[in-house]
Amino acid sequence: MILLSVFSCGKSLSLEEKQEFTKKGKEITQDSFKELSGKLMDQMSIGGPAQAIPFCNIQAIPITNQLSEKYNVLIKRTSDKIRNLTNHPTKREIEIISTYKNLLKKGKLLTSIVELDSDGLKHYYAPIVINSTCLVCHGKKGEQLTVKTDSIINSFYPNDNAIGYHEGDVRGIWSITFNN
Ligand code: HEC
C-alpha cells in the first residue's frame, strides 16, 4: 500500500495543482470563447453565414493558435462530429466527450476535468454546449440551418459532420494541454 502510493505520487496531481489548472483552464477557455464568438458574431452581423463561414474557415485556427501562444499552452476545440479535419479528436478526447454526453443524459452537471497523461503533461477539458446562436451553422438542415447555409458549409467542408444539433447538446470539448 505504502509503496503503491509512493509510486503513484509522481503520476498524480495534488488538490492544489488541480485547483490551479482548473482556474487557468477556465480563464483560457473563457477568453478563447469570447475571442472566437465575438469575431464570429461581428462577421454574422456584417454579412450573415455567407460571410461568417469563410471567415471561420480561414481564421478559427490562427485565432486559436495566437491564444495558444499568449498562454503558452495548446488550445484545441474538438468533437466526435467534426467539421474542420484539423480539429480531429484523440482517443482520450473521444472518451471525455462520451463521458460528458452520458452525464448530460443522466441530467448531471458537466464540469471541467484536469488530469495528467502518461508523459506527465497536464490537460484541461471542458464541455462545449450548443446554444441558440450556434444552430444557424450546426442545427438541423432545413430548419435553423438553411439549405443555402448548408451548401456554403459543404463547399468549404465536403466531409462536414457537425450538423443536426439541438440547444443543450454537447457539441464537443475544449482541450487544453499545458506546457509546464
Ligand atoms: C457562421 C457559422 C457558425 C456558427 C454560428 C457557429 N459555428 Fe461552430 N464552426 C463553424 C465552422 C465553419 C467551423 C469550422 C472551422 C473551425 O472553427 O475550425 C466550426 C467549428 C466548430 C467547432 C470545432 C470542431 C469542429 O467540428 O471542427 C466547435 C466546437 C464549434 N464550431 C462549436 C460552435 C458553437 C458552440 C457555436 C455557438 C456558440 C458555433 N460553433 C457557432 C461555423 C459556425
Can you describe this structure?
The protein has 180 residues and is of the alpha+beta class. Helix 2 packs across helix 5. The two termini are 30 Å apart. The longest helix is centred in the first third of the chain and has 57 residues, at 15-71. The protein has helices at 2-9, 15-71, 91-105, 135-138, 147-156; strands at residues 73-78, 113-116, 122-129, 170-178.
Task: Write a concise synopsis of the structure shown.
The protein is built from 5 helices and 4 strands.
Number of strands: 4
The number of helical runs is 5
State the domain count. Answer: 1
Q: How is the largest sheet built, in terms of strand order?
A: 1-4-3-2
Q: Rg to the nearest angstrom?
A: 18 Å
Q: List all distinct small molecules, including ions and cofactors, that are bound in this structure.
A: heme C
Distance between the terminal alpha carbons, to the nearest Å? 30 Å
Tell me the fraction of residues in β-strands, as a range.
15-25%
Taking pLDDT < 50 over at least 5 consecutive residues as the criterion, the unreliable ranges are 1-6
The sequence of SSEs as H and E is HHEHEEHHE
Overall geometry comes to globular
Q: Largest sheet at a glance? A: 4 strands, antiparallel
Structural class: alpha+beta
Oligomer: single chain
- Percent helix, as a range, is 40-55%
Mean pLDDT: 94
